[in-house]
Amino acid sequence: MAEPNPRRLVLVGAGTARATEELRSDPGVGQIRIVRRGPGEDLHVLVIEVHDDHVQAMLCGEECDWATETDAVLETRSTGLPRPILIHGDVSGSILKRRLGRALGQIEADLVQRIALRGRGLDFTSTDLGRGRAIAGESDPRWEWKLERHRELRQVRARASELGWEIYKLDPREE
Q1: How far apart are CA 102 and CA 24, in angstroms?
Q2: Is residue 12 part of a domain?
Q3: Rounded CA gap, 95 and 152, in Å?
Q4: Which of 5, 43, 156, 174 is the most exposed place for a label (fewest CB within 10 A)?
């Protein structure tokens, strides 16, 4: 298995991007969007839920050969993109809308729901989602690769304080 290059994702070429209002508008479920992560390269995510000030999104990439059983591998006929895309069903988080860049593509909302179910371990029968094999253990090279994807998303994921959420202790006796 060749070592993946997670930063080479080029979903839509500069001359082929669909310049529709749909792709430039507010985030919507099913959009594949750029996420700004400051210094370094941008990430790509699939929007699975939209809220007032943030979205819930899953990390995307091109490393289709490295897919695990919780990932979805979508072919170009499902996405309209020039190459297959890997959607990390188990690498998701809340991202502030202001960190999102332009949309690169769009997939159907019902497909998004099934991808989200796959990521939660609830849909392994959908043949149109593609799928990798389970990670056998810590010696599997995909183990560290998957942990790195989690670290990448953590760089752009919204903290509870940014979302206006309060954190409470579970046991009042701890105060």
Answers
A1: 6
A2: no
A3: 13
A4: 174
Residue 138: which domain range?
Answer: 21-152
Number of residues that make up the chain: 175
Domain annotation covers residue 14: no
Instruction: Give the type of residue at 149.
Output: R
d(C-alpha 106, C-alpha 174), whole Å: 47
- The 10s digit of each residue's pLDDT in 3-51 is 554 434 444 433 333 433 444 478 999 999 999 877 767 899 999 999 9
- The span from the CA of 159 to the CA of 33, in Å, is 20
In degrees and rounded to multiples of 5, residue 41 shows phi and psi of -85, 155
Quote the pLDDT of residue 55.
94
Cα atoms in the 13 Å half-sphere on the side-chain side of 37 = 18
Cα 123 to Cα 91: distance, rounded to the nearest angstrom: 16
DSSP track, 99-136: GEEEEEEE--HHHHHHHHHHHTT-----GGG---PPP-
What tokens does 102 get? 């332009």
